[in-house]
Amino acid sequence: MPRLPIALLLAALSAAPLFAHAKSARGGSGAGGGHLSPNANLTTLDPIPPDGGWEGLANLLETLKPGVDTRLDPAPSQVTDRIERLLTQGHNDEALALIEKRQAERDRQGTRGTDVQLMFQHARALAALGRTQESIDVYTDMTTRFPELPEPWNNLAALYATRGELDRAQDALNMALRADPTYADARANLGDLQLLMALRAYRQAGGQGAPGAKDKAQEIENLLKEKRQ
């Protein structure tokens, strides 16, 4: 899960997956020990490898009939795992395209229920692409529909903090900790956020001439700089 930006400099967009996913194996030997196609273990998420090992006559015959894509449709968990890898590797445009394709397929198939992980990844991809308000909208929808999940609250707080909306970030972190009091990332984020709020308050007080306020602000700034190192 993302940690809040210290002094509003951290992007806080590299969230970990909301849930763990079991990988599902596809392919394997058919009944009777028959040989499978070279593409039998691939899904449509994988590129078709070049043919190899065929005799010349077989190649000639293959050119006389239409090609057959023997790759399997990926299981939902395989799609989710692929999206996760793309997000981790920073291929955010590709991840978003795959997310939107999966969402469209679910709508077309009339799939009931909500894929919470896909929704969470959607918000992360949008945030990583700088589409902050759209990401906030998705996270907000998640907090409305699934208030018991702390991760959307935590990530929502990170986005609010990057926009300088510290009070809203604090409210979101309090909701994350209400959902899960043991959520360490949210607890640490709340500590960083309170430092930022104290810095803001001392700067304002210093600007109004309060004795010692500027020195307090400098102390907090120094502490934040140490945390960044």
TrEMBL record:
SMART domains named in the record: TPR
Pfam families per the UniProt record, alphabetical? TPR_19
Q: Does the keyword Transferase apply?
A: yes
Keyword list (alphabetical) reads:
Signal, TPR repeat, Transferase
Q: Which residues form the signal peptide?
A: 1-22
Q: Write out the ranges of the annotated region (Disordered).
A: 24-47
Query: What are the protein's GO molecular function terms?
Result: transferase activity
> TPR repeat boundaries?
150-183
Q: Which SUPFAM superfamilies match?
A: TPR-like
Query: Is Transferase included in the keywords of this UniProt record?
Result: yes
According to UniProt, the name of this protein is: Predicted O-linked N-acetylglucosamine transferase, SPINDLY family
What organism does the record attribute this protein to?
A: Bordetella ansorpii
Kindly list the organism's lineage.
Bacteria, Pseudomonadati, Pseudomonadota, Betaproteobacteria, Burkholderiales
